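Pilot study result, target chain (164 residues):
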Amino acid sequence: MKTCEICFSKHHTVLCNLVLYIALTMSWPSMAQPPRAGSEQPLPAVDAYKSPQCGCCKLWAEHLQKNGFTVTLHDVDDIPAARKKLGMPNRFGSCHTAKVGQYLVEGHVPAADIKKLLEKKPKAIGLAVPAMPPGSPGMESDHPVPYNTLLVGVNGNANVFARH
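Predicted structure:
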């Protein structure tokens, strides 16, 4: 082997190692730190008001917890009175009502719909899934039925927010 080939080979190896060292040094701090959530805000706590005997309300709360919400259940004897006190029109009633941030959530509303509401921040009272449709969160069923999540406006009127 000629001297220049040996010299080139040594320089080439040193150069390659230097480039590799620089690349690893620059990327290592980001690999050692957990990913940042960006602009995501923590989810607000959920205060849910339910009948002491209601089991499906607990299942709905578990659904929310699995989706990142912290839920506090409050047993009340009169759900319609709690609903009225919070400000949700009775015609959208279900077996439980909840407060999530500035919004009310009536019935078995999916966590994804609540997250979408919190992201979009419309001027509204909140969301409602009236009655207790089989197949909604907490009302799992072998025979689910299609249902809508309604956006209840500040005027008390509602529009379809999501179809399930």
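One observation from the pilot: The chain has one domain: 46-163. A full batch analysis is planned for the follow-on phase.
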